[in-house]
Specification:
With about 400 residues, this protein is of the alpha/beta class. It has two domains: about 5-85 and about 95-175, Rossmann fold (3-Layer(aba) Sandwich), CATH 3.40.50.620; about 180-300 and about 340-360, Alpha-Beta Complex (Argininosuccinate synthetase, chain A, domain 2), CATH 3.90.1260.10. It has helices at about 15-30, 45-55, 70-80, 100-110, 125-140, 155-165, 245-255, 280-295, 300-320, 325-335, 370, 385-405, and strands at about 5-10, 30-40, 60-65, 115-120, 145, 180-185, 190, 220-230, 230-235, 240, 260-265, 275-280, 345-350, 355-360. The strands form three sheets. A five-stranded parallel β-sheet has the order 3-2-1-4-5, with helices on both faces. A five-stranded antiparallel β-sheet has the order 10-9-8-13-14. Strands 6-7-12-11 form a four-stranded antiparallel β-sheet, with no helix packed on it. The longest helix has 23 residues, at about 385-405. It is elongated, with a radius of gyration of 25 Å.
């Protein structure tokens, strides 16, 4: 690959991406554009601007953007229409943020005339795959630079030495080994590494940042109502909210009740297993609510097909294939299923759990007349079940008869 002339770097303002910024300048002698996305990570982003300027980036080459609404509206909500869970548990909080970051990296590259993009993902993780597959899908000609796969700064000691040599500010707590690494956005926090690397040892409570310990949560349950329209949540307790504001409010509610903690050993796309501690308070409530409204508005066939396809859909997102044709095909099917997923769900939040306790919709398929144990006034003839059973039993009878013959 020829040396790039201008690179758009996914920049957090932290030590690692600041070192990458300087490394790109010294290694390639190229112009660097920084992009910092406000995904609701809960950090002040102005220091990232100041750090970039300190490292010689011109103000016009510093992009800091609030993409929270786009993140929830165009990425999180479509994923939740599918009830997506990777390996049955993980709500894909890190995975779903990467295609949006990559999308803006490629767009900014086009706007600024850059011929390459760069990221700070390591060569052991999933994020390198997610960033790069997304970038290549959106611009097949783009160059992608992954410094962790190229440089010889293979240890924390070497990184700190490089930082000191190049006058990159180092936070005092970075001089020691960080106890664990954290990735955060509006959907979740993800913590891994160091004190969490032994899956046999319970994670220290200080790892959790968004949720109170369930045992310390309020002793009185809280009831909330979430309104849905076309498969997406639109209101809480009757108040209409934008996608990002709604998820923010659910995070506050879930965090206060200790909801959404997950200790998971997962199978990475690159082959190894890793242990992560995830907190997804609002997302956990949203998933329960969405399943609650689907219970009365989705036909059995549609609901069961969705559940069969969901693991594949979740795996595509986890593995970085958001912009693939197969994910888009599945999304079209999922979105079609949500046409009548409109109504309200009542939920009980209590000490780490969220449970659906009521649901209603103008499009409900639930018929009390058909399921009542009282007189159904002719809505359902129970004698019809006999023929239904006999037809379904026919092949089992034939199989059973053959088995008896050959024994």
């Amino acid at each position: 690959m020829s040396a790039p002339k201008k690179v758009v770097l996914a920049y957090s303002g932290g030590l690692d991406t600041s070192i990458i910024l300087k490394w790109l300048q010294t290694e390639y002698g190229c112009e660097v554009v920084t992009f910092t996305a406000d995904l609701g990570q809960g950090e002040e982003l102005e220091p990232a601007r100041q750090k970039a300027e300190l490292l010689g980036i011109a103000p016009e080459n510093i992009y800091i953007e609030d993409v929270r609404e786009e993140f929830v509206r165009d990425f999180v909500f479509p994923m939740f229409r599918a009830n997506a869970l990777y390996e049955g548990l993980y709500l894909l909080g890190t995975s779903i943020a990467r295609p949006l970051i990559s999308k803006r990296l490629v767009e900014i590259a086009a706007e600024t005339g850059a011929d390459a993009v760069a990221h700070g993902a390591t060569g052991k993780g999933n994020d390198q795959v997610r960033f790069e597959l997304s970038a290549y899908a959106l611009n097949p000609e783009i160059k992608v630079i992954a410094p962790w796969r190229e440089w010889d700064l293979s240890s924390r000691t070497k990184l700190l030495a490089f930082a000191e040599e190049n006058q990159i500010p180092i936070a005092k707590d970075k001089r020691g080994e960080a106890p664990f690494s954290v990735d955060a956005n509006l959907l979740h926090t993800s913590s891994e590494g160091k004190v969490l690397e032994d899956p046999a040892v319970e994670a220290p409570d200080y790892v959790y940042q968004r949720t109170v310990h369930p045992e310390a949560a309020p002793d009185t349950p809280e009831f909330i109502e979430i309104g849905f329209k076309g498969g997406d949540a639109v209101s809480i307790n009757g108040e209409d909210l934008s996608p990002a504001m709604l998820l923010t409010r659910l995070n506050e509610l879930g965090g206060a009740h200790g909801i959404g903690r997950l200790d998971l050993v997962e199978g990475r796309f690159v082959g190894m297993k890793s242990r992560g501690i995830y907190e997804t308070p609002g997302g956990t409530i949203l998933l329960e609510a969405h399943r609650g409204i689907e219970q009365i508005t989705l036909d059995r066939g549609a609901a069961h097909l969705k559940d069969e396809l969901m693991p594949k859909y979740a795996e595509l997102i986890y593995n970085g294939f958001w912009f693939s044709p197969e994910r888009e095909m599945l999304q079209a099917l999922i979105d079609k299923s949500q046409e009548f997923v409109t109504g309200t769900v009542r939920l009980k939040l209590y000490k780490g759990s969220v449970r659906t306790v009521g649901r209603w919709s103008d499009y409900s398929l639930y018929s009390e007349a058909h399921v009542t144990f009282e007189d159904d006034a002719g809505a359902y003839d129970q004698k019809d079940a006999a023929g239904f059973i006999q037809l379904n039993a026919l092949r089992l009878k034939l199989l059973g008869a053959r088995k008896r013959r050959v024994q």
